[in-house]
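Q: What would this chain look like folded?
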Amino acid sequence: MYNFPSEPRKIKERIRRHERAFIKEQQEHGVISDGAGKRYLLGPLYLILNDVDGALKYYQWFESEFPDDVGEPLQYFCWILALYRKGDTDAATNKLIQAMLKNLYLIPHILGQGQERYDIWHGSNYEDIEYLSYLPPVVMELCTKEELDWINRQYSSDKFTTIRGRYIDIQSQLKDEPRGSRRTELVEQASRLEYLDFSDLN
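A: My prediction, written as structure tokens:
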């Protein structure tokens, strides 16, 4: 489980320490490698403090600094909440789609719905059901009832159901597909959905 401090003072100290480390690494090496994945934790830490503007400012920096980063489910979940609380529901909806595809078990877990492990290809540990055991309760408790209702409406909508169904179908085919042109095409189809390109659904 992610080890998040609970006291505001310690949370602020953690944020400052991570941000200083990023600045130092950038100055010394010209790039931030962050093999430990600290870049995924700052957004959630800001949100625990209910600092929505701080979280969104960080996510803007994250996008500019790591444009090709695949992201991480917990990070995306907090990104959704920050956007929603700022009133940007369109952007929050897009992030919700990406979070749903980043880990197919995350949203059902947040909504308190049971979900068995899919018999599909899981490309990383971030995508598997065991990832849920790493989620810190302090973050899972951030959602208000209004936010949970909104997430449930989106998740249950025809649009989300269609996207999710197609993604699961692709991942199911990838489970036993050997390397080759067919597998490459399936991976590209999944990637297009992850980047909000739904042209394959038409």
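The chain has a mean pLDDT of 93.
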